[in-house]
Each structure stands twice: as C-alpha cells, then as structure tokens.
Automatic annotation (TrEMBL):
Keywords: Carbohydrate metabolism, Glycosidase, Hydrolase, Signal. SMART domains: Fn3_like. Belongs to the glycosyl hydrolase 3 family. PANTHER family: BETA-GLUCOSIDASE (PTHR42715:SF10). This is Glycosyl hydrolase. GO terms for molecular function: hydrolase activity, hydrolyzing O-glycosyl compounds. SUPFAM superfamilies: (Trans)glycosidases, Beta-D-glucan exohydrolase, C-terminal domain. InterPro entries: Cellulose_deg_GH3 (IPR050288), Fn3-like (IPR026891), GH (IPR017853), Glyco_hydro_3_AS (IPR019800), Glyco_hydro_3_C (IPR002772), Glyco_hydro_3_C_sf (IPR036881), Glyco_hydro_3_N (IPR001764), Glyco_hydro_3_N_sf (IPR036962). Residues 660-725 form the Fibronectin type III-like domain. GO terms for biological process: carbohydrate metabolic process. Gene3D superfamilies: Glycoside hydrolase family 3 C-terminal domain, Glycoside hydrolase, family 3, N-terminal domain, Immunoglobulins. Residues 1-28 form the signal peptide.
Length: 743
C-alpha cells in the first residue's frame, strides 16, 4: 500500500492500516485541519463578543476533580475523576472541559474511577515502530476510550526530545530526533482528535529531565532550540494540529516555561501562527503575569500557590485595556479549540461500552512492531516451537509486563496483576508504584511451545535460577528497569543485581536470551556472554503475547531504536546528570522560588542531540540510533538525490517476509560533520521482494536557524542510506544553492 504522509511518501503493508478503532459509539471524523481551525476561530471571536465580563474567567482556570485530601476543592457533579476540569458556560452553550492523561491511554488515577483502559506500549516503543500509521491507530483507539469515559480532552502528545537517557520520562516520550518525533506525535494527535476531542502536545518546551523539574533552568541558544526540540514541536503541530499545548515545569532562559514570553508569545503564537490554547502543567504557574507571557489557562489550580487566573485576572482586565484584550484572546483560543474539535456538537457523554478485546489488538500490533531485536548470535532466535525445555527467569514474567509510573500510568480492568510500591507515603505514593499489566509472558511462551517443559523462577536467588537454567535447552531471562515521572535514574545499569543474574545464567546455559523491559537505554556488561537480546520496553496491554510472538518467529522483529544506547554515561554530553545530587521524587519544588534554581546547560550538545552528538564526537554507541535486527536481511541501493527528493530501492534479500525501516541521513555539509536523519520509511517486503522508496527532504533539516531565518549555505550536501546512524551504506553528494526563509 502506498501512503502519502505529509512530506513523506512511504509504502506500508501494516496489517492495521484500515482498522481504525475508536470506541463503539465514537463519531469517527476527520481530525481538525488548519481550515477547520480557522473557521472555529471566527466563531470563537463572535462568542467572546457575547460574553459578559463575569463570564470571562470561567474558561481560564480549572481544578483537579479528585479528592486527594489537598483542601477544599469542590468537585462539580458533572466532573469525571481525572486530571482536570474546567467549567463551561451554559448560557452560551460552551461545554465544560473534562481532561484525562495521557499519551499511553486513559490513565488509571490510582483506581479512583474503578475502571480500566487499554494500555498502549510506552512512547519509546511506539517510536521504535517508525510507523506513523501505527501511532495514528493507537491515538484513535485511546482517544475513543477517553471519549467513551466522558472525557473531551486527552493530555497526550509527549514529544520532549530525549536529551538524557536517564530521564525518568523517557518511556513516555518518543525519540531523540526532531523529524521522527514530530512525524509520530503528529500522527498520534490526528488519531486522538478524530474522536471529537482535544489533544495536547506537551511539555513545551525543553523538559528534558525530571531532576529538579519544577525549577531547573535550561540554558540553550535560540538556534539550537529551533533546530531540535522546537522543531519536533513544530513538525508535530503541522502534522497533528493539536488544539492545545501544555507548557512545561522547567524554566528556559531564566523564565518559567509556563510564563515565557519567548516560547509562548513569540515562537508558538507569533512565528508559528498557532491558534489553540496553552494550558499549564499542573502546579507550573508562577503568578498572574503568566497570562501576559502567553499562558491561556491555569490547570489544576489547587497545585499552584494561588488561583491566579480567576479574580486576580479579572481585576487586571478591569484596570488595564491591555489585560482586557489579552483576556479576550485567552477565551477566544479556548473556544477555538472547543469548536474545532466539535466538543459542543458531539458531546462525550461517557458510560459507553468499550470493546477491550479489539483495542488490545491495537496495543499488541504496536508492541510487535516496536520490539527491537538487539542481538541474535548464531540465529538462536526464533525459538523452535518444538522446543523440549525452556527456563523462564525473573522480571515477574509469570504475571505480566512492566509499565512506567506517574500520571501516564494506565491499567486494564481490575488494575495491575502485581503492584510493587517504590517507596514513600502520602498523596503521591500511589503514583510511583511499579505496576505490571495482566499479560503473562510465561503463559504466552508456554502456549507457543506446547511440547516443552517450561519452568519459572523469579530470579531472587541466583543459585536457584542457575539450577533451572542448567536443566533447560534455552534460558530466557526477563529483566526490568522501572522508571517513572518525577524521578530520573542515577545510572544506566539494571537495578537490583539483575546484571549479575544474567551473567550467572549465561554461564550456566549457552543458549541464554535476555528480554529487557526498560524505560529506555541500559548498559549491558553481560552482552558478550548471552546469545540474544530483545528490547521489549514497556510493551503494554498485550506485551506478553507480543514478546512470545517475536521469540518464536510469528512476528519477524522490525523495531528500530529511536534513541542511542550509549556504551557508558561518559559518552553523554553531561556525564553527570545536572543536579543528580538532588535525585529524589521530584514532584516537589517551587516554581516561584528564586532560590530553588538548578542550571542545566543544553548548549553543550546544542541541537546535536543523541546520534548527532555521537557523530560529532566520533563515538561508537553500544547500539546506535536506528539499529535493530530482523530474521531476514535487507539491502537498500540505487540512491539518487535530486533537489529535495531522494529515491532508492529496498530489497528483502533473505528467506522470510519482514519490514525494513529505511533511513536516509545527511552526513556532511561542505565537508563538516552534520549528521541528521532526513527521511525514513517502513517498508513491508516478502522474501525476495523489492520496492522503490521516494522521500521528500524537509529543507529545515539541511539548514541552520540564523538571525530569525532558516538558512542553508550554498555547497555540497552529502547523504547516505543507513541501516542505522552508524552503519551507513550508499552515499550521494549534491550541490545546493544558498537559501534562507522565514518559519
Ligand atoms: C504531568 C503532565 C500531566 C499532568 C496532569 C503533570 O504532573 O507533567 O504530563 O498531564 O500532571 O496529570
């Protein structure tokens, strides 16, 4: 199938292409386009004119509609327990906004709603599919569930670039590359907003670490920001047309991101001409002046030091025409989003039945495409279905698969199969439990190998695990790295002695296979000793089945790393995570305090995030960006680049059907190392089959941001086809004229 995706043309045979699964009664529609938004904006202007002065601060602030014992919040009758509630204006037919987290599905809010939802795999797994279509399908599915539960805003679209693999939220985000992240988040948002609901894109911007997240001040030049994190947001906005942007906790250039004239007024609203509304992150608003600096709505106001966007804002508007005009604009933006999504005309009533079995298939297909095969020595995988004995060890693999912690935590019906407290007490303790979805890898492996004696040991005792490993033909060791919002990991080792467990099992059984369930990259001191490594990330509601399908070859692995796996933290721009002395659950912190400041210098790598930094430094990763093995082999050849169009052919040169992710990189510009992913396409190929690929290169990826313009110098641009960012194949150099242009 040939699909045109904005600036990219790709061929895909992904099975779920036509299977867009929204909740049963969702009003599937085309997601809002720039034209829909323009029309909504005009309607919004008319409503603002009809508003009474006392109505003008209703849409500008909200609460958290759940009883967390945090004081006297009155929860309205029509609220649904979730992240946020913003009252509507009945007189004008403006509905209330009912908000839930997040990018991986409708969050469980500590079981407060007593229901379940379908958990998509983690964001980084979704990105490892390199498949916008699969993200669209996932978005349509979770948006449908949000709607079915009565929500009309999904706090999704996490797209912060992965500047540090130790970031506790790496699992929620997508990749380290602006093109890949932007294309994928845009597709997910289009899917979500096809349900007559609003999606956010978040956290704007440069929210690259959890350490000191409410007070860390990011230093980065405008040029570097424009060529990296802001470009990911820009592409995401172009592709997905999100109706809301959630600003971030951190500061940028000394200003809180939620009260940041440069980010919100200049870049987002003026330069990009974006018409939706900016909502704050929860507890990220320093004061009423945030309104003048571009914030349109104060979310979960009880988490801030004050209710700034109600009476205080009204008083300002009464006293000063500049504030009055700003307040009108805030209302206009919220209304534009409501009308463009069609929330008033197609209300999400809630209480709808969800087809969990059908939705689980979307999660499973995503997992199958995003699991990455990292090592397969001697073709030990796929395992034979006629295997006689398999030892499964560790990782709670008898019960389920791990998920990441924090506000994005989704649980199926009945909640987690295992829930292991991390630590701590108080209102946030429930947010940082290590929860396992009910999808047992052990059961799925047993089903794949019906004749095998499958034994399980939890791995707590190495001697016992080794004994079982010795008795089996194959040992499959499941290891986990729990990560969570609010807490970065201090290093990239597997925790709790799991490195030693793997080494001991590998010494006892020559056919040891490691399955990683990690939030992001880890180091692998045991790598030479094991035969195979499968990166399953946090694989979601049907992760166990997806893992077994890859292990036994029903699925030919096709995931590719969307983030560099460093050989050690010494290779990172900041070997020591800024402020790592402060590592502690970082839900705390005061965004208004002048003394609580931690500085992080992102100018070290600038826009050379991830593989670009490795190329600049000539460093070799443990596993590079774009890397992933298959049970077949592929060859890309015949590269030709004419202007901004690249064409080449991809061939399946092996014995099995499979998907290749073709990658095209800029490598040098006028002889200077400048590695940038400029195009990609997932291509499904039968054994022996070839297909042509055509990619249109976004000129921003060849350019620098200079003096307020995108600028590309005259000269020689060299491109290479890549198996991954380090394994480059055919190269072509072309000459391009000098060019500069506005956003
Ligand atoms: C997170 C957001 C989330 C919000 C509401 C914040 O702590 O940073 O991503 O949407 O809470 O739950």
């Amino acid at each position: 199938m040939r699909i045109s995706m904005g600036k990219m043309v790709l061929w895909s045979g992904a099975a779920l292409g036509a299977m867009v699964l929204a909740a049963s009664t969702a009003q599937a529609q085309e997601a809002p386009t720039a034209a829909t938004i323009k029309a909504a904006d005009a309607r919004a202007a008319a409503t603002v004119k009809a508003m009474k002065p006392e109505e003008k601060t209703i849409l500008t602030h909200g609460i958290m509609p759940m009883d967390l014992g945090m004081g006297n919040v009155v929860i309205p009758k029509d609220a649904v327990p979730g992240a946020g509630y913003i009252a509507g204006i009945d007189r004008l037919g403006v509905p209330a906004l009912k908000e839930t987290d997040a990018s991986l599905g409708v969050s469980y809010v500590m079981g407060l709603r007593k229901d379940g939802a379908t958990a998509l795999p983690s964001g980084v797994l979704q990105a490892a599919t390199w498949n916008p279509e699969i993200l669209y399908n996932g978005g349509a599915m979770i948006g449908g569930e949000a709607r079915a539960k009565g929500f009309n805003v999904l706090l999704a679209g996490g797209v912060n670039l992965m500047r540090d693999p130790r970031n506790g939220r790496t699992f929620e985000y997508l990749s380290e590359d602006p093109l890949l992240s932007g294309m994928l988040v845009g597709a997910a948002i289009r899917g979500i907003q096809s349900n007559h609901i609003i999606s956010t894109i978040k956290h704007f911007a440069l929210n690259g670490q959890e350490t000191g997240r409410k007070y860390v001040d990011i230093k980065i030049s405008e040029a570097a920001a424009k060529e990296s994190d802001l470009l990911a947001f820009k592409i995401g906005i172009e592709q997905g047309q999100p109706l809301s942007v959630m600003c971030a906790y951190n500061r940028v250039g000394g200003q809180n991101a939620c009260s940041n004239d440069f980010l919100l007024n200049k870049v987002l609203k003026k330069d990009w001409g974006w018409k939706g509304f900016v909502m704050s992150d929860w507890g990220a608003v320093p004061g009423v002046e945030a309104a003048i600096n571009g914030l349109d709505q104060q979310s979960g106001a009880e988490l801030d030091k004050g209710l700034f966007f109600a009476d205080k804002l009204a008083d300002k508007a009464k006293a000063d025409p500049k504030w009055a005009a700003r307040l009108d604009n805030m209302n206009q933006r919220v209304l534009t989003a409501i009308y463009a999504a069609g929330i008033d005309k197609f209300p999400a009533k809630g209480g709808e039945k969800i087809d969990f079995a059908a939705h689980a298939k979307v999660a499973e297909e995503t997992a199958k495409q995003g699991i990455v095969l990292l090592k397969n020595e001697g073709g030990v995988l796929p395992l034979m279905k006629t295997a006689k004995s398999i030892a499964v060890i560790g990782g709670y693999a008898d019960g389920g698969v791990l998920s990441g912690g924090g506000s994005s935590q989704v649980q199926g019906e009945g909640g987690a199969v295992y829930s292991i407290p991390l630590s701590g007490t108080g209102v946030w303790a429930g947010l940082i439990g290590q929860n396992y979805h009910r999808s047992s890898p052990l059961k799925a492996i047993t089903a794949q190998a019906p004749q095998a004696k499958v034994t399980y040991r939890d791995g707590r005792y190495i001697t016992d695990a080794v004994e079982k490993a010795k008795q089996a033909e194959v040992a499959v060791v499941f290891v986990t790295q729990f990560t969570t919002e609010g807490l970065d990991v201090p290093d990239l080792h597997l925790p709790q002695g799991q490195d030693e467990l793997i080494a001991a099992v590998a010494a006892a059984n020559p056919n040891t296979i490691v399955v990683l369930e990690t939030g992001g990259p880890v180091v692998m001191p045991w790598l030479p000793k094991v035969k195979a490594v499968v990166e399953a990330w946090y694989p979601g509601a049907r992760g166990g089945e997806a893992i077994a399908s890859v292990l036994f070859g029903d699925t030919n692995p096709s995931g590719r790393l969307p983030i560099t796996f460093p050989a050690s933290t010494d290779q990172l721009p900041r070997p020591k995570l800024d402020g790592s002395d402060w590592v502690e659950p970082n839900f705390a912190g005061d965004p208004t305090s002048g003394s609580d400041i931690l500085h992080a210098d992102y100018d070290i790598e600038g826009s050379d995030v991830g593989y670009r930094w490795f190329a600049r430094k000539g460093q070799k990763a443990l596993f590079p960006f774009g890397y992933g093995l298959s049970y077949t082999s592929f060859q890309s050849s015949g590269l030709s680049v004419k202007g901004l169009t690249a064409t080449f052919t991809v061939k399946n040169t092996g014995q099995r059907d499979g998907d290749e992710v073709a990658q095209l990189y800029l490598t040098t510009r006028n002889g200077e190392v400048k590695q940038r992913l400029v195009g990609f396409a997932r291509v499904s190929l039968k054994a022996g089959e070839s297909k042509p690929v055509s990619l249109t290169i976004d000129p921003r990826l060849l350019a620098d941001w200079k003096n307020g313009l995108w600028t590309s110098p005259k000269g020689t641009y060299s491109f290479a086809l890549g198996k991954d960012a380090e394994t480059l194949g055919e190269k072509v150099s072309i000459t391009l004229p000098a060019k500069s242009w506005k956003e």
